Amino acid sequence: MTTNSKNLPTAKKSFRSRQSKGDIAFEIIVVILLAMLTLTIIYPLYFVVIASFSDAKAVVGGQVIVLPVSVTLENYKECFKNGDLMQGYGNSFQLLIYGTAIYLFLTILCAYPLSRKDLWGRNGIMVYCTIPMFFGGGLIPTYLLVTKTLGLSNSWWAVILVGGVSTYNMIIMRTFFMSSIPFELQEAAEIDGCSPLRTLISIILPLSIPVICVIGLYYGVGIWNSYFTALIYLSDKNKWPLQLFLRQILVNADLSVVDGGDASDMARRAMRAETIKYAICVLASIPMLVIYPFIQRYFVKGVMIGSVKG
Amino acid sequence: MDMSSPTRSPSVKRKGFMYWIRQRRINKNWQFYAMLLLPLVWYFVFCYMPMPGVVLAFKKYSAMKGVYGSPFANPWYKWFLKYYQSPYFSRTIGNTFYLSFLSLLLGFPLPILLALLLNEVRNRAFQKTVQNITYIPHFLSTVVLVGMMTCFTNRDFGIVNKAIEWAGGTPENWMQVPAVFRGLYVGSGVWQNMGWDSIIYIAALAGVDPQLHESAYIDGANRYQCMWYINLPSIMPTVVIMLILNSGHILSVGFEKVYLMQNDLNMAVSDVISTYVYRISLLSSNQFELSTAIGLFNSVVNCAMLVVVNSISRKISDVQLW
Question: For the segment B293-303, what is each residue's pLDDT rounded down to a tens digit?
């Protein structure tokens, strides 16, 4: 530390090279702490994956710790044989696609006009959109409205529309339109004869891919992972999303996933079910984790946009 | 729209309706208003139309007459009184408050700590790896998370119990032990969201002026002091905003996870307002009015909480939401 005052840190390199022993020790401690934390976070996930590829006996016997034991695809085969799960998968995918498309459509249609400073009544409309963030009708009034007044019980429309647009995401998108796209671009387009709709399609949207990806991901993950609205509004099992079937199998310990074997064989079935559950966990999470690497680089950007007060 | 074209303007009265329209460019911007139509209708139907439905909290509901046609309860605060006098009042409020307080106590500072530590790592590759791994659990659904916990803590097969046996303890179906319910709830929440919640602080830390660090270095500060006395105060506004927002949820525990973790054996500690509201209305016994009353009470408390915390924060740190 004594040499510090002699040469001012002009370049980053010199700044870096002057680390005292204490600083190095500090950094080592930080790295060790973070490595430990990362291990605690990744291990349960890793365990689920290796257990899903292992033989049931080995998993139940506690032998699977670091590597899968007697690798097998049996657990996954069992999952694919299960009609309920596949039905849920298909339903969830459809809900995911329709829902994300509808939410993004509504969010963009709301965010773009509200990003225009020359729009009369903009602040009033903003307030109108913000109030529901803090106050809502509550469970029963919404339920009665959807099922009685709108007659949407047992319909995917209820599940999609009740979740609906998130004002928070709308504000993120609006802030992006306002701060990351120069207003001069819009003015130039207008002078060249672009209508607002045309400006949106040809100018704004192509420049907003990052924010659309991030918000699409937020919506998509939300739809894929939620089960409450489906639990309330869908009574018909054929329409259930994956999460409701998962709830039956994983949480309510429904053993019907393991077919074959008779009732006397309960212990064996319970044991088999255990590894199949791990495989189900993996299968249920894969779609979200597959999109993740593609959108991951936009995360910090997306959150930063949101944190700018607009 | 052609009525308002500029060529017609001399014939329009100066203070007429079209003048008013044109002055605000509403005619030029009609496409914007057309775009807004659909989202605003959605907001109206699904956010505003249920709102007057809270009168149900003061009524004697009959399915025949509908929410608005039903007569008022006698006395009007009947359902609130009923909730207040029921044994579930203290249980649900206590559990809700306790659970969200514990979640806040642990779940709030840890992401900040994670961001501060990550910021100290010079090795970019290591930093990115840690970040990306800690985000992953956020993408698991609550059902999968609770399913994993159930599997891990299964008395006969779970890995947790294998470890406990190995260490000489007695295995247990931990999901059914009331004493560990809160720990499991809060711990799994931290595990799932710590990384994700740290993003906003990482973003805030990226905006800290490096000159501050350089001058601190010249004055002889070490890395630890830089973190503690420069980085942390620099992100304090973000921290306070997040704290205010989070405290607005102090009386609302997410329904989804608690409901999944709930079972007959841990009911005494896991019964929260949202699960109680669901249980008495849609799951069984159709007590719509009572359920609405509790919901109303809950959101009023949440709003009040937000206002109180915001004004405290305004007094002591001039960071505020409004």
Answer: 888 888 888 88
Q: Does B223 touch chain A (CB under 8 A)?
A: yes
- Interface pTM, i.e. ipTM: 0.85
68-107 of B, contacting A, C-beta below 8 A: none
Q: Residue B277 falls within a domain, yes or no?
A: yes
The per-residue pLDDT of chain A, averaged, comes to 82
Chain A residues with CB-CB distance to B58 below 8 A: none
Q: Which of B51, B67, B143 sits opposite A144 (nearest CB)?
A: B67
**Residue A130 pLDDT > 50:** yes
Residues B268 and B180 in one domain: yes
Do B16 and B152 sit in the same domain of this protein?
no
Question: Residue A100: what pLDDT?
Answer: 94
- For residue A8, pLDDT beyond 70: no
Q: Are residues B120 and B239 in the same domain?
A: yes
As for how many domains chain B has, the answer is: 2
The CATH code of the domain that includes B119 is 1.10.3720.10
The answer to whether residue B93 is domain-embedded is: yes
Pick A34's closest partner by Cβ from B39, B130, B132: B130
Segment of A94-103, A190-199, A233-242, A245-254 carrying the highest mean pLDDT? A94-103
- B143 lies in the same domain as B213: yes
Assign A34 a pLDDT band (cuts: 50, 70, 90). Answer: very high
Is B139 in Cβ contact with A45 (below 8 Å)?
no
Task: Kindly determine whether residue A138 and residue B292, on different chains, have CB atoms separated by under 8 Å.
Answer: yes
| Cβ–Cβ below 8 Å for A114 and B162 | no
User: CB pairs below 8 Å between A and B: how many?
Assistant: 278
| pLDDT over 80 at B318, yes or no | no
In a domain, B234, yes or no: yes
pLDDT above 70: residue A78:
yes
Q: Are residues B111 and B228 in the same domain?
A: yes
Query: What secondary structure, in 3-state letters, does chain B show?
Result: CHHHCHHHHHHCCCCCHHHHHHHCCCCCCHHHHHHHHHHHHHHHHHHHCCHHHHHHHHECCCCCCHHHHCCECCCCCHHHHHHHHCCHHHHHHHHHHHHHHHHHHHHCHHHHHHHHHHHHCCCHHHHHHHHHHHHHHHHCCHHHHHHHHHHHCCCCCCHHHHHHHHCCCCCCCHHHCHHHHHHHHHHHHHHHHHHHHHHHHHHHHHCCCHHHHHHHHHCCCCHHHHHHHHHHHHCHHHHHHHHHHHHCCCCCCCHHHHHHHCCCCCHHHHCCHHHHHHHHHHHCCCCHHHHHHHHHHHHHHHHHHHHHHHHHHHHHHCCCCC
Nearest CA in chain B to A23: B223
In this complex, do A200 and B35 lie within 8 Å of one another by their Cβ atoms?
A: yes
Range of the domain at B242: 86-286
Smallest CA–CA distance from A270 into chain B, residue: B157
**The pLDDT of residue A255:** 65
Q: Is A269 on the interface with B (CB under 8 A)?
A: no
| pLDDT of amino acid A64 | 80
Q: What is the pLDDT of residue B8?
A: 52
- Residue ranges and CATH numbers for the domains of chain A are 20-75 (no CATH), 77-307 (1.10.3720.10)
Assign A300 a pLDDT band (cuts: 50, 70, 90). Answer: low
A151 interfacial to chain B (CB closer than 8 Å): no
The yes-or-no verdict on residue A16 having pLDDT over 70 is no
Residues of chain B with Cβ-Cβ distance to A139 below 8 Å are 277-278, 281-282, 291-292, 295
Tell whether B259 and B119 lie within a shared domain. Answer: yes
Compute the nearest-CA separation of A277 from chain B (Å). 8
Same-domain pairing of B43 and B102: no
Query: Is B222 at the interface with chain A, CB within 8 A?
Result: yes
Residues of A in contact with B49 (CB under 8 A): 137, 145, 149
**Prediction pTM value:** 0.85
